[in-house]
Every structure is written in C-alpha cells, then in structure tokens.
Design goal:
Elements lengths: L1 H33 L4 E2 L2 H10 L3 E4 L3 H6 L6 E2 L7 H4 L6 E5 L7 H11 L4 E5 L2 H7 L7 H11 L1
Parallel strand pairs: 1-5, 2-3, 2-4, 4-5
Length: about 150
Amino acid sequence: MRLFSTLLVAAAFVTGGVSVASACPGEKMAKQKAGPTYALIEVDQLAQWVDAKKAKVFHATSEEKFAKAHIPGATRVDYDGMTADALGAAKDDRVVFYCANTGCSASEKAAQAALKLGFVNVYVYKGGIDGWQAAGKQVATLDAAKKKVRADG
C-alpha cells in the first residue's frame, strides 16, 4: 500500500513537472521577443514628476479630447507615425504617455512606438485623464489658454 502511495505521488509530481516544463519554454520565448518595455506608474508619482518638471508628458488621444482637458504641460501625440522629433525629447529623457482612461489603449501603443524609436525611460499612466481628474488633479484646457491670450493681448 505504501509503495502504491509513493508511486502515485511520484506520478503526480512528474506529470506536474512535465506541464510546467512545457509551459516555461513558451514563456521564455515570449519574454525574449518582447524586448524593451515600459513601466506603469500611478497618479501620485506622475503628479510629482509633473510638478517637478521631471518628465515629458504626452496625451495620446484626439485633439478634441486634448482641448477639453489634459495634464498641465502635456503635449498631444498620435501613436501612428510618431517620430522622435515629434516627441522633442532626448532618448534617455523620462517620457510618460496617458490617454482617456483604463479602457483606452492609446497610451500603451504610444509607449510601444517610443520604445521602437529608441527611448529607454518610457512610462504609461493607465488612469488617463479620467483618473487624473478623479484624483482631484488640476487639468489644462486649450479654451482656457485661448481666453488667457485674449485677456493678455
């Protein structure tokens, strides 16, 4: 009886080992193919960087959404056809991309494009402008900027 139990445990171990071993090579290959990647950051970290001007921040949604609300100091970008010149940053500068909200993937696409262009300090804020506003952070609008120019001019 004890021999049977030992064999049963050994068989379970070997079977588990085989399935794990067969899963591992695929994971290893996926990691090798992935190449450089971006890091995710939270709203408070991004707010600190914005306040200290320690990151170049990019809004990866439409011009209309950017005009309505964007993180102060952010620049709007299109992830399709993005160039290093359009980012106006050195390849080792900290660059952060965000879009509308957690359901939007434009920030991730823009970050991937930046990585392909050779940028090495790439971050994504997944909360987007919706998360930024929900956290009570200040936003800028193009309408406010236009009004200020008219009032000053």
